[in-house]
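User: Here's a chain of 76 residues. Predict its fold as tokens.
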Amino acid sequence: MHLQVKSSFKNATPRQALLQIGNAVLMAAVFSVIYLAVQGELFLGIYLAITGIMTIINLFYTKYLVIFNRISSNRS
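Assistant: Prediction complete.
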């Protein structure tokens, strides 16, 4: 699994990498919601998923915004 992710990141454009990260985050959020719903903690699961998604989006958005700006300035 880990090797597969690495190889797909190696020859991916930044946009594809962002999409892959987004898919992974969504899957993790869905699994956490399902797991906690089974445990009877649905609201906690939803809360954790939303906060996790928000923090990860903020982290990657700020990090990749700088990279995207550099790429676009290099192309022009």
